[in-house]
Write a structure and sequence with these properties.
By secondary structure, the protein is α+β, with helices and mostly antiparallel strands. The chain contains 5 helices and 12 strands. It is elongated. 23% of the residues are buried.
Amino acid sequence: RPLRAPAARAPAAPAPPPGGAMAQSSRVYFGDLPADTDEATASAIFGAYGTIKYIKMLEGKGACIIEFQSHEEAKWIVENLNGNIAQGLSTPVRVEFARPFGGGKGDAAGVGGWTPMPGPGYPGACGGGAARWSPYPMKGCGGGKGKGAGSISVLKKGLQYAGVLPGGKWNNEQNALFVSGLPADTTNADLYDIFCPFGAIPSQGAYAMSNPDGTCKGIGFINYLEAISATTAMNTLNGTVMPDGTSLRVQPKGPSKKTKGEGK
């Protein structure tokens, strides 16, 4: 039976437990995760058990390392969740304190995961501004020179999961367009480039349906934040003649078909 998250309670004053730095750590290793677990999923599952400061997925290992707000939270999770089934999972997970920083190869904070960027309230804060999150290692308080060491997919998923992108969790039934007659090499980026000048499109709001081999099925969907944008795009682009002489069709998306068990 999935282990429920603990009820909110006042944190106890941490007493130095035996076992050295690892015993007092707030960094927890989670293993035996499903192979398709990504950062957003892990954050949603384990965030129910404590306040997450950063998370690092260990690619190809079905595991992740999470730093929680306090040692007390981490200690409760290690003692109660190890060998149990977390809410949102169907199999038990392995949970233990993570190695100290530098304690293992590839176990440094910030590589491929979320690292807290110093700000007010963080030790070593540099200047003003609120504390933010970064998907690449912090290297002092420089002005952003060089490139990040993280993955752009981690950045996108993190921003989407955090709900900081305009549009939030958009509804595919509102301000949506159905596009047909697309060439086989059409991608999501192509649709975005064509339709975004007409108005704001939320994250993942331009989607080209693809075949198993990666080619486009000839259809796609566009979601706008405002109805006027959808109307303008449809009136402008519907009937556009394609290079092969066929016409592009852009029309309002119809209601999704209900599957069995969803009602009449």
